[in-house]
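Order emerges. For instance:

***
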Amino acid sequence: MGDTTSKTRFVRFAKSMSRLTGRPIAFILALAVVAVWAVTGPLFAFSDTWQLVINTSTTIVTFLMVFLIQNTQNRDTEAMQIKLDELLRATEGAHVALLDLEELEENELDAIRSKYESLAARAREQLRSGANDTGTPQVD
C-alpha cells in the first residue's frame, strides 16, 4: 500500500511541476535568477565561488527535471498508445494484431514496418501512374 501511495504522490507532484515549469512565469523567473546572478558578478569579483553557484544550481535543477520530464513523457506516451489501441480495436477491418505493438521486439517491429513500407511504395507507384491510392489494400 505504501508503494502505491508514494507512486500516486510522485505522479501528482510530477504533473504539478510539469504544469508549473511549463508556464511562461517559470521561464521569466529562471531568466530573473540568471540576471541577478550576472549583475552580482562585479560584487563577487567574478570569483570561482560566484561561478560555482550558477553551475551547481543549474546542474541540480537540470538533473531533477530530467526525471520529471521522463515521467510526464512516459505517462503521455502510454495514454496515447492506449488511445491508438482503442482506435484500432474499434475500426472495422483494422489489423488488431497491431494492438500493443510497442511491446514487440525490434526484429518483429522491423518485419511489420517492412510490410507497411512495401504497401506505401505500391500506393506511391499507383499514384504516379494516375491510379487512386485510397481504399483498404491487403497487407502481405
Summary: Residues 114 and 120 are 10 Å apart (CA to CA).
